Amino acid sequence: MTAFEKEYYFLRRGRNASLPYPTAFHETHEREYWRGKVAPDSAPLAFYNGEKRGHRKEGIKPMLVPPDVMYDAGNLIVRNHVREALLERKVTGLSMHPAWWVHDDKSLYEDYCYVGFQKKFDCWDRELSEHSGQEEDADPTDPEPIVSSFCLNTQLLERTPLHERLLFVMGGCFAGDLVCHESILQLLQGGEHSGIRATLIADD
Q: Do β-strands 108-117 and 75-79 pair in parallel, antiparallel, or remain unpaired?
């Protein structure tokens, strides 16, 4: 284990049963926004809670207001004040576009931003991490092994400017998680209106 495993967190969907499941309206889905092809001057992306009916059937009460940060299949939907803070910190590798949120009570929130990731950052150590590529019957040509325990590449991280590694998707592995540096964790997870949970890489 290196010191970096105590500086970085995996970000995942929160466990609060009332959390909405961000789902794109048909018109937004047709734009394939997750591929980063959204024209900068095009209309905002629009989302709603895809589990609204399911929650109602299960007796789960909806949140009075939507979370400031929502997890969307490895990407994020954040309030504009979070977006501004990310820009102030010069976080790189992000693809941002205005977004609207239609809450369960049909209220329209126009102060959101969709945050996607242009590329992944492969920064885990193959020698120190535990992964499927180490198994006897492993396919040596598999470019994305399953990692069960991460150790980060110290040399790579030390020579990478901090603003380029504040928030990224882990690359070089199957189903790479969203990773956040401790210095911006409070921004994304802080407060009562957050839809994500954070797990220290050292504890994962």
A: antiparallel
Is the separation of the CB atoms in 52 and 59 below 8 Å?
Answer: no
| Pairwise pLDDT comparison (144 vs 165), residue with the higher score | 165
Residue type, 99: A
37: buried, middle or exposed (CB in 10 Å: 19+, 13-18, 0-12)?
Answer: exposed
Domain boundaries, the chain: 3-121+156-203
- Between the CA of residue 95 and those of 10, 141, 200, what are the distances in Å? 19, 31, 25
On the question of pLDDT at 172 being above 80, the answer is yes
Comparing CA positions, the residue from 105, 128, 125, 130 lying closest to residue 172 is: 125
**Residue type at 12?**
R
Give the separation between CA 129 and CA 43, rounded to whole angstroms: 43
> Which pTM value belongs to this model?
0.91
Burial 83-94 (b: 16+ CB within 10 A, else e): beebeebebebb
Report residue 70 CA to chain centroid gap.
Answer: 8
